[in-house]
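User: Sequence in, structure out. Go.
Assistant: Echoing your sequence, followed by the C-alpha coordinates.
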Amino acid sequence: MISLNDRLLHEDKPRRYAVGLDLGGTNLKYGIVSDRGEVIYQNVIPVFADHGRDHVLQTMVDAAYECVMFGRKESFEVEGIGVGCPGTIDSDRGISLGPTPHLPDWENAPIAEYISQKMNLPVFADNDANFMAFGEAMLGAGKQYKLVVGITLGTGVGGGIIINGNIFHGSSYNGAELGHTIVEAHGRPCGCGNQGCLEQYAGGKYIVKEALSAIARGDKSVLSSVENITPKTIFDFAQKNDTLCLNILEQMVFYLGAGLSSIVHVLNPDIIIIGGGLSEAGDAFVSRIHNEVIKRVMKPIKPKLQIVRAKLGNTAGLLGAGYYVLYKNRSK
Protein backbone atom coordinates (compact mmCIF):
# COMPACT_ATOMS: atom_id res chain seq x y z
CA MET A 1 0.00 0.00 0.00
CA ILE A 2 1.40 3.42 -0.99
CA SER A 3 1.26 6.02 1.79
CA LEU A 4 0.12 9.60 1.27
CA ASN A 5 3.72 10.71 1.67
CA ASP A 6 4.87 8.21 -0.98
CA ARG A 7 2.29 9.64 -3.38
CA LEU A 8 3.49 13.14 -2.57
CA LEU A 9 7.02 12.08 -3.49
CA HIS A 10 5.99 10.21 -6.65
CA GLU A 11 8.70 10.87 -9.23
CA ASP A 12 6.57 10.78 -12.38
CA LYS A 13 4.72 13.99 -11.43
CA PRO A 14 6.04 17.52 -12.02
CA ARG A 15 7.77 18.99 -9.00
CA ARG A 16 5.82 21.29 -6.69
CA TYR A 17 7.32 24.04 -4.56
CA ALA A 18 6.68 26.03 -1.39
CA VAL A 19 8.52 28.60 0.71
CA GLY A 20 9.74 27.65 4.17
CA LEU A 21 10.53 30.30 6.80
CA ASP A 22 12.24 29.39 10.09
CA LEU A 23 12.19 32.34 12.50
CA GLY A 24 14.61 32.57 15.40
CA GLY A 25 15.28 35.32 17.89
CA THR A 26 18.38 36.44 15.96
CA ASN A 27 18.09 35.19 12.38
CA LEU A 28 15.50 34.11 9.83
CA LYS A 29 16.40 31.03 7.79
CA TYR A 30 14.35 30.64 4.64
CA GLY A 31 14.24 28.85 1.34
CA ILE A 32 12.29 26.99 -1.32
CA VAL A 33 11.34 23.36 -0.72
CA SER A 34 10.21 20.85 -3.33
CA ASP A 35 7.80 17.95 -2.87
CA ARG A 36 10.84 15.67 -3.25
CA GLY A 37 12.23 17.06 -0.01
CA GLU A 38 14.87 19.16 -1.76
CA VAL A 39 15.96 22.62 -0.66
CA ILE A 40 16.08 24.43 -4.00
CA TYR A 41 17.20 27.77 -2.63
CA GLN A 42 18.10 29.02 0.85
CA ASN A 43 19.36 32.07 2.65
CA VAL A 44 19.59 33.57 6.13
CA ILE A 45 19.18 37.17 7.29
CA PRO A 46 19.12 38.93 10.69
CA VAL A 47 15.66 39.78 12.03
CA PHE A 48 16.58 42.75 14.29
CA ALA A 49 13.78 41.80 16.66
CA ASP A 50 14.37 44.89 18.79
CA HIS A 51 12.95 46.96 15.91
CA GLY A 52 9.49 45.63 16.75
CA ARG A 53 6.86 43.20 15.57
CA ASP A 54 6.00 44.86 12.28
CA HIS A 55 9.66 44.91 11.30
CA VAL A 56 9.97 41.16 11.96
CA LEU A 57 6.80 40.42 9.98
CA GLN A 58 8.00 42.57 7.07
CA THR A 59 11.37 40.80 7.16
CA MET A 60 9.52 37.52 6.63
CA VAL A 61 7.53 39.04 3.77
CA ASP A 62 10.75 40.25 2.14
CA ALA A 63 12.28 36.77 2.46
CA ALA A 64 9.19 35.13 0.97
CA TYR A 65 9.20 37.65 -1.90
CA GLU A 66 12.86 36.86 -2.58
CA CYS A 67 11.97 33.16 -2.84
CA VAL A 68 8.99 33.79 -5.12
CA MET A 69 11.13 35.92 -7.43
CA PHE A 70 13.81 33.23 -7.54
CA GLY A 71 11.15 30.69 -8.50
CA ARG A 72 9.82 32.87 -11.31
CA LYS A 73 13.34 33.40 -12.59
CA GLU A 74 13.69 29.60 -12.72
CA SER A 75 10.22 29.27 -14.34
CA PHE A 76 8.25 27.80 -11.45
CA GLU A 77 5.64 29.10 -8.99
CA VAL A 78 5.37 28.37 -5.27
CA GLU A 79 2.09 27.12 -3.81
CA GLY A 80 2.28 28.74 -0.43
CA ILE A 81 4.40 29.65 2.57
CA GLY A 82 5.09 27.74 5.79
CA VAL A 83 6.29 29.74 8.79
CA GLY A 84 7.90 28.23 11.88
CA CYS A 85 8.04 30.58 14.89
CA PRO A 86 9.03 30.28 18.55
CA GLY A 87 6.31 30.16 21.19
CA THR A 88 2.70 29.03 21.24
CA ILE A 89 1.12 29.40 17.80
CA ASP A 90 -2.57 29.00 17.00
CA SER A 91 -1.93 26.96 13.86
CA ASP A 92 -5.53 27.27 12.65
CA ARG A 93 -5.44 31.07 12.57
CA GLY A 94 -1.67 31.53 12.28
CA ILE A 95 -1.46 33.79 15.36
CA SER A 96 1.11 33.88 18.17
CA LEU A 97 -0.76 33.34 21.43
CA GLY A 98 1.84 34.37 23.96
CA PRO A 99 4.96 36.43 24.57
CA THR A 100 8.21 34.96 23.28
CA PRO A 101 11.72 35.63 24.59
CA HIS A 102 13.88 37.54 22.09
CA LEU A 103 10.80 38.65 20.08
CA PRO A 104 9.30 41.76 21.73
CA ASP A 105 5.59 42.44 21.29
CA TRP A 106 5.06 39.05 19.65
CA GLU A 107 1.88 38.15 21.55
CA ASN A 108 -1.13 38.13 19.17
CA ALA A 109 1.09 38.72 16.14
CA PRO A 110 -1.09 38.00 13.05
CA ILE A 111 1.64 35.99 11.30
CA ALA A 112 -0.34 34.17 8.62
CA GLU A 113 -2.73 37.03 7.83
CA TYR A 114 0.02 39.63 7.51
CA ILE A 115 2.20 37.56 5.19
CA SER A 116 -0.72 36.18 3.17
CA GLN A 117 -2.13 39.65 2.46
CA LYS A 118 1.26 40.93 1.32
CA MET A 119 2.12 37.88 -0.79
CA ASN A 120 -1.33 36.79 -2.00
CA LEU A 121 -0.47 33.19 -1.10
CA PRO A 122 -1.79 30.73 1.52
CA VAL A 123 0.30 30.78 4.70
CA PHE A 124 0.59 28.07 7.37
CA ALA A 125 2.18 29.11 10.68
CA ASP A 126 3.17 26.78 13.51
CA ASN A 127 5.68 26.39 16.32
CA ASP A 128 9.22 26.00 15.00
CA ALA A 129 9.88 22.78 16.95
CA ASN A 130 6.68 21.30 15.49
CA PHE A 131 7.94 21.98 11.98
CA MET A 132 11.38 20.60 12.84
CA ALA A 133 9.73 17.38 14.05
CA PHE A 134 7.47 17.30 11.00
CA GLY A 135 10.43 17.69 8.66
CA GLU A 136 12.32 14.87 10.35
CA ALA A 137 9.21 12.65 10.45
CA MET A 138 8.43 13.08 6.76
CA LEU A 139 11.86 13.52 5.21
CA GLY A 140 14.52 12.65 7.77
CA ALA A 141 15.26 10.13 10.47
CA GLY A 142 11.60 9.33 11.19
CA LYS A 143 10.09 8.85 7.76
CA GLN A 144 9.34 5.15 8.20
CA TYR A 145 7.59 5.55 11.56
CA LYS A 146 4.02 6.38 12.60
CA LEU A 147 4.58 8.03 15.98
CA VAL A 148 7.58 10.34 16.05
CA VAL A 149 8.80 12.54 18.90
CA GLY A 150 11.24 15.32 18.02
CA ILE A 151 13.34 17.04 20.69
CA THR A 152 15.33 20.19 19.96
CA LEU A 153 18.26 20.83 22.28
CA GLY A 154 19.28 24.45 21.93
CA THR A 155 19.21 27.40 24.29
CA GLY A 156 16.19 25.66 25.81
CA VAL A 157 14.46 22.37 25.03
CA GLY A 158 11.65 22.23 22.47
CA GLY A 159 9.56 19.39 21.15
CA GLY A 160 7.14 18.17 18.52
CA ILE A 161 4.96 15.08 18.21
CA ILE A 162 3.94 13.70 14.81
CA ILE A 163 1.25 11.01 14.63
CA ASN A 164 0.53 9.45 11.23
CA GLY A 165 1.80 12.54 9.45
CA ASN A 166 -0.17 14.99 11.62
CA ILE A 167 1.28 17.51 14.06
CA PHE A 168 -0.13 17.03 17.56
CA HIS A 169 -1.17 20.42 18.98
CA GLY A 170 -3.21 19.58 22.07
CA SER A 171 -6.47 21.32 22.98
CA SER A 172 -5.03 24.85 23.11
CA TYR A 173 -1.93 24.59 20.88
CA ASN A 174 0.37 23.89 23.83
CA GLY A 175 0.84 20.17 23.21
CA ALA A 176 4.39 18.80 22.94
CA GLU A 177 5.97 21.34 25.31
CA LEU A 178 8.40 18.56 26.12
CA GLY A 179 11.03 20.86 27.60
CA HIS A 180 8.60 21.47 30.46
CA THR A 181 8.46 17.84 31.54
CA ILE A 182 9.21 17.87 35.27
CA VAL A 183 12.45 16.14 36.25
CA GLU A 184 12.85 17.65 39.75
CA ALA A 185 9.67 18.22 41.77
CA HIS A 186 11.26 21.01 43.82
CA GLY A 187 13.82 22.02 41.23
CA ARG A 188 14.97 25.19 39.55
CA PRO A 189 12.31 27.81 38.75
CA CYS A 190 11.38 28.01 35.07
CA GLY A 191 10.10 30.90 32.99
CA CYS A 192 6.90 28.92 32.34
CA GLY A 193 5.92 29.40 36.00
CA ASN A 194 6.72 25.88 37.15
CA GLN A 195 9.92 24.50 38.61
CA GLY A 196 12.15 21.56 37.84
CA CYS A 197 11.50 21.58 34.07
CA LEU A 198 13.77 19.54 31.82
CA GLU A 199 15.06 22.58 29.96
CA GLN A 200 16.41 23.97 33.22
CA TYR A 201 18.79 21.01 33.31
CA ALA A 202 19.41 20.21 29.63
CA GLY A 203 19.10 23.52 27.77
CA GLY A 204 22.29 25.14 26.51
CA LYS A 205 21.70 28.30 28.51
CA TYR A 206 21.54 26.34 31.72
CA ILE A 207 24.54 24.06 31.23
CA VAL A 208 26.65 27.17 30.61
CA LYS A 209 25.22 28.68 33.80
CA GLU A 210 26.11 25.46 35.64
CA ALA A 211 29.70 25.65 34.36
CA LEU A 212 30.07 29.29 35.42
CA SER A 213 28.69 28.51 38.91
CA ALA A 214 31.13 25.60 39.31
CA ILE A 215 34.10 27.78 38.30
CA ALA A 216 32.96 30.49 40.74
CA ARG A 217 32.93 27.82 43.50
CA GLY A 218 36.54 27.06 42.69
CA ASP A 219 36.15 23.82 40.73
CA LYS A 220 39.23 23.20 38.61
CA SER A 221 38.69 23.20 34.85
CA VAL A 222 40.30 24.47 31.68
CA LEU A 223 37.05 26.43 31.30
CA SER A 224 38.38 28.90 33.87
CA SER A 225 40.72 30.27 31.19
CA VAL A 226 38.01 30.49 28.50
CA GLU A 227 36.60 33.97 27.97
CA ASN A 228 33.33 33.00 26.28
CA ILE A 229 31.98 29.64 27.44
CA THR A 230 29.41 28.04 25.14
CA PRO A 231 27.76 24.60 25.14
CA LYS A 232 30.16 23.62 22.34
CA THR A 233 33.11 24.59 24.55
CA ILE A 234 31.80 22.31 27.29
CA PHE A 235 31.28 19.40 24.87
CA ASP A 236 34.73 19.90 23.33
CA PHE A 237 36.53 19.84 26.67
CA ALA A 238 34.44 16.89 27.85
CA GLN A 239 35.93 14.96 24.93
CA LYS A 240 39.36 15.95 26.29
CA ASN A 241 38.40 14.48 29.70
CA ASP A 242 38.03 17.75 31.59
CA THR A 243 36.41 16.60 34.85
CA LEU A 244 34.01 19.53 35.24
CA CYS A 245 32.82 19.28 31.64
CA LEU A 246 32.39 15.52 31.94
CA ASN A 247 30.29 15.98 35.09
CA ILE A 248 28.08 18.59 33.40
CA LEU A 249 27.59 16.32 30.39
CA GLU A 250 26.79 13.35 32.65
CA GLN A 251 24.19 15.39 34.54
CA MET A 252 22.64 16.54 31.26
CA VAL A 253 22.36 12.94 30.03
CA PHE A 254 20.89 11.90 33.40
CA TYR A 255 18.11 14.48 33.24
CA LEU A 256 17.40 13.88 29.55
CA GLY A 257 17.05 10.19 30.38
CA ALA A 258 14.60 11.01 33.17
CA GLY A 259 12.53 13.40 31.06
CA LEU A 260 12.46 11.30 27.91
CA SER A 261 11.59 8.11 29.76
CA SER A 262 8.50 9.85 31.16
CA ILE A 263 7.56 10.96 27.64
CA VAL A 264 8.09 7.40 26.40
CA HIS A 265 5.76 6.01 29.06
CA VAL A 266 3.03 8.48 28.07
CA LEU A 267 3.31 8.24 24.27
CA ASN A 268 5.13 4.97 23.53
CA PRO A 269 6.65 6.46 20.35
CA ASP A 270 8.36 4.48 17.62
CA ILE A 271 11.31 6.86 17.61
CA ILE A 272 12.72 9.92 19.37
CA ILE A 273 14.75 12.23 17.15
CA ILE A 274 17.20 14.58 18.83
CA GLY A 275 17.94 17.78 16.94
CA GLY A 276 18.92 21.38 17.63
CA GLY A 277 22.36 22.87 18.11
CA LEU A 278 23.39 20.60 20.99
CA SER A 279 22.75 17.49 18.90
CA GLU A 280 25.90 18.52 17.03
CA ALA A 281 27.78 16.97 19.97
CA GLY A 282 27.50 13.82 17.86
CA ASP A 283 26.25 10.26 17.76
CA ALA A 284 28.15 9.23 20.90
CA PHE A 285 26.24 11.83 22.92
CA VAL A 286 22.90 10.65 21.51
CA SER A 287 23.91 7.04 22.20
CA ARG A 288 24.47 7.91 25.87
CA ILE A 289 21.00 9.47 26.05
CA HIS A 290 19.55 6.33 24.42
CA ASN A 291 21.24 4.10 26.99
CA GLU A 292 19.96 6.24 29.88
CA VAL A 293 16.38 6.12 28.58
CA ILE A 294 16.47 2.38 27.88
CA LYS A 295 17.73 1.79 31.42
CA ARG A 296 14.64 3.57 32.77
CA VAL A 297 11.74 2.38 30.60
CA MET A 298 9.50 -0.67 31.03
CA LYS A 299 10.85 -3.95 29.70
CA PRO A 300 8.39 -4.39 26.75
CA ILE A 301 9.44 -0.98 25.39
CA LYS A 302 13.19 -1.58 25.41
CA PRO A 303 13.66 -3.71 22.25
CA LYS A 304 11.83 -1.43 19.81
CA LEU A 305 12.43 2.14 20.95
CA GLN A 306 14.76 4.09 18.66
CA ILE A 307 16.55 7.25 19.81
CA VAL A 308 18.60 8.84 17.05
CA ARG A 309 20.21 12.06 15.95
CA ALA A 310 18.31 14.28 13.50
CA LYS A 311 19.32 13.95 9.85
CA LEU A 312 18.26 17.27 8.37
CA GLY A 313 20.51 19.53 10.43
CA ASN A 314 19.96 23.28 10.22
CA THR A 315 17.53 22.91 7.32
CA ALA A 316 14.99 20.86 9.33
CA GLY A 317 12.85 23.87 10.29
CA LEU A 318 12.53 25.45 6.86
CA LEU A 319 12.18 22.02 5.21
CA GLY A 320 9.41 21.07 7.60
CA ALA A 321 7.63 24.42 7.14
CA GLY A 322 7.76 24.33 3.34
CA TYR A 323 6.97 20.64 3.04
CA TYR A 324 3.96 21.07 5.34
CA VAL A 325 2.39 23.42 2.76
CA LEU A 326 2.79 20.79 0.03
CA TYR A 327 1.55 18.01 2.31
CA LYS A 328 -1.59 19.97 3.22
CA ASN A 329 -2.17 20.60 -0.51
CA ARG A 330 -1.26 17.05 -1.54
CA SER A 331 -4.55 16.46 -3.40
CA LYS A 332 -3.41 18.93 -6.09
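User: And one key feature?
Assistant: The radius of gyration is 20 Å.
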